[in-house]
Amino acid sequence: MVSSRLLLRGLFLALILGSLLVIGSAYAIAAFDSTPAETAANRYASGSTQPVVGSANGTTVIATDSNAWLGQKTDNPRSNAELLAFAPNGSVSYYNDSHTRYWDVDPVPGTNATVEYAYADHVNASQCPALLSEDYWRTDEYANSISWTKWQEYARAYLDESGGACTQNGIERVNLSTGTVTPVYTATTPGKHSTRWHDADRINNTHLAVADIYLDRVFIVNTTTETITWSWDPARDSPTQFATDQTGGPYPTDWTHMNDVEVLPDGRLMASPRNADRVVFLDPQKPPSETLVENWTVGTEDETETLHEQHNPDYIPPTEGGPAILIADSENNRVVEYQRENGAWNRTWTWSDGRAQWIRDADRLPNGNTLITDSNGNRVLEVNRQGTIVWQAETAFPYEAERLETSDESAGGPSGESAAIAPRSSGPIEQIWLGVRGVLAGPAFSGIHYVAPYWVGTAELIALIVCVMSIVGWILVESWLAIRPRVSRSRVKEQ
What we know:
The protein is an alpha+beta fold. 25% of the residues lie in helices and 29% in strands. It has 2 domains: 1-35 and 455-495; 37-126 and 165-434, TolB, C-terminal domain (Neuraminidase, 6 Propeller). It is built from 8 helices and 23 strands.
């Protein structure tokens, strides 16, 4: 008869060997054959005029992130930030990888092939300006838009964290047909991580609304004079809803992670303080203490079933069946839509699948399809009204995508409720997988994905966790089995 000790050893050994098999297989495949995104990255940058992805109903522009800590490119395709465009026939019509990071991209109204995008470039400490000097603060329009005391507080914290490095944030325009790039607005922020602006949205020919991650605010800037004409600082203007010691992340380093702003048709702004698990509405015409529009906020901090560290919320106006908001519910690995009904937000649509991992953008297209950016899933995809994938581009670490021939973000697409768009259904096996993944979902799991090699997917991470837990468990069990006889003898002697 097999002893219980041998059974336990066999179980632990099987778990460890099975986990190593999953991890080793993925590594071997990556070593001997290019992964889809590696192959895609080579094709996209090659300059070939041949189709490299499927045809689509318009030009698709994609901005990608990078997981390189210092901005250097490596052999890992996720380390190389890119701005690329696929023509309707699937060929690459534009490619640029000159910046450290690319973020939000928007079509420029009145043009056929011009987009405006946010970027960030990391700067070594030796090349950064004297960001802690009072002379710099006095002469820089961005810096002196806040008090000298607050500038010092933020700058010291981020410079200490980054070893003195800084970031050049900017907004540029590019004509995708000619390649002509036009600078729009730039500013330098101390530090690297969580000081990189992710989004700016145009108000008119001279003014932009900017989501300022570094200073935890939303501001409006005149890009002609570089004067900041308005700002909403949640700690200053809405302290009841946003207390620095009770909300978000650590203050002042990455407190709100303000990652998105959208100018609405009625003049209000919609913003995304990611670390507060909320989407908020702002009225720039109101006094500072009344800027935050009451009863319009979506989500509550740490109520993660509603939202969990979201990205890129897109407003669907009443003319398209709204008010509704399409949101990349990132840490929940899904896209959600909330419809405003009787003064409240109700979830009316959800999309996810077995591969989705840290979705960071979703746009509703005029035909009712949805364009989704799956960052750690390394793809941009379009799903139809039934939730079926009808177009897909393997893309390493994408951040945001835009279909040019449609309106900005989701402005030209219908709400799910008005167009009877059905949530995607999944089979029993996929539901089990989604349940397992849901248990692990969260910032820590996404953070591991962020820095992991491209070939490490969700299955490999789960296998790694199982392997480590099995090794630790085996050691603990063997230790207990070794000392148990002595413990038993000791108890007998005491009796």
